[in-house]
Structures are given as C-alpha cells and as structure tokens.
C-alpha cells in the first residue's frame, strides 16, 4: 500500500474548488452537518490571508486543507482526506504543512474547531493542540442530533 510519501502537496486557489468539493463530498459524513457548500468555500477567497493546500495522489484529489490568518492568529477552517486514502499519514502531512505556513506568516497561535466526537481529535492532540473551549450542541446532524464543537489551539511562538 502507498503511504503519504506518494502524496504531492501543492498550493491551491479558487480555481481548484471542483477538486476541493470532490474531496469534501467524500470526507464529511452528512450526518454531522460539517461540510461546507461550494459558495461558503468560494466566499473565503474574497478575504485576505486565506490559503488552500491540495493533496494529490498521481494528480488525483486526495484531500485538502483551508486556513486563514487574521492579525497574529491563524485558523484551520477545513481539513479533509478522502476515506479510501485515510490512515496513510496524509492528514498529518496536511496539518504539518498548515502549521508551517501559519508559522512562516507570523501566527502566534493556530486554532481549529471540530465536532467533539470526531476521530481526528487524536491527530490534533498528537500534533500538540490543546482543547481551549467547547460549544455545546453547536453542530446539527441530518436527523436533528446535536453535537458539541471543540476549539483547539496550538501555540506557534518560539
């Protein structure tokens, strides 16, 4: 089986939204109400400080990460890996890349928000993130269920 070394990470742009939406549709279970619409993703590119990284395997979409920088804080807005390619280190490579870019851009802290019972929490904790907040019943699932949102942060200072 291939591993994350076979994955190319490249900078993306608004013109890559078809690829983003392909990965988004597969990666986010509609039962949890976490996926963004194309309009939401496209709207982010109107703001300064937004960047997109695409993960590709042999020129095919493997995943992506989208973030923004405001003042000295960065926020990881979305990170996704297509289910068939999970557990190969792609998510960690995307995350490490976003951390490095945030640091290069002068961020003191990188934040993210996630559903409280999301398996990806282990990835973030292993990367040094800590839980700094909780929003009760923030996400609404497809059948009306409610899920807490966790706010995680990583200090990037020297």
Structure characterization notes:
The chain has one domain: Aminopeptidase (3-Layer(aba) Sandwich). By secondary structure, the chain is of the alpha+beta class. The chain is built from 4 helices and 7 strands; from the N terminus they run E-H-H-E-E-E-H-E-H-E-E. It is globular, with a radius of gyration of 15 Å. The N and C termini lie far apart (37 Å). A 7-stranded mixed beta sheet has the order 1-2-3-4-5-7-6, sandwiched between helices.
Q: Which terms summarize this structure?
A:
25% helix; alpha+beta; 158 residues
Low-confidence stretches: none
Question: How much helix is in the residues?
Answer: 10-25%
Please, how many helices?
4
Largest sheet: 7 strands, mixed
Order of SSEs, N→C? Answer: EHHEEEHEHEE
Number of spatially distinct domains: 1
Query: Judging from the principal axes of the Cα atoms, what is the shape?
Result: globular
Q: What's the CATH topology label?
A: Aminopeptidase
Q: What is the radius of gyration computed over CA atoms, rounded to a whole number of angstroms?
A: 15 Å
Structural class: alpha+beta
């Amino acid at each position: 089986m291939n591993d994350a070394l076979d994955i190319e990470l490249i900078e993306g742009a608004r013109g890559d939204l078809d690829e983003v939406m392909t990965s988004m549709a597969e990666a986010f279970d509609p039962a949890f109400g976490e996926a963004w619409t194309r309009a939401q993703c496209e709207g982010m590119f109107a703001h300064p400080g937004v960047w997109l990284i695409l993960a590709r395997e042999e020129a095919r979409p493997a995943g992506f990460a989208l973030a923004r920088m405001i003042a000295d804080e960065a926020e990881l807005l979305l990170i996704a890996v297509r289910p068939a390619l999970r557990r190969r280190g792609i998510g960690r490579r995307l995350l490490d890349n976003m951390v490095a870019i945030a640091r290069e851009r002068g961020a003191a802290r990188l934040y993210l928000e996630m559903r409280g019972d999301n398996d990806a929490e282990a990835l973030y904790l292993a990367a040094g993130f800590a839980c700094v907040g909780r929003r009760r019943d923030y996400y609404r699932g497809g059948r009306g269920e409610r899920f807490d949102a966790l706010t995680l942060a990583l200090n990037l200072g020297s």
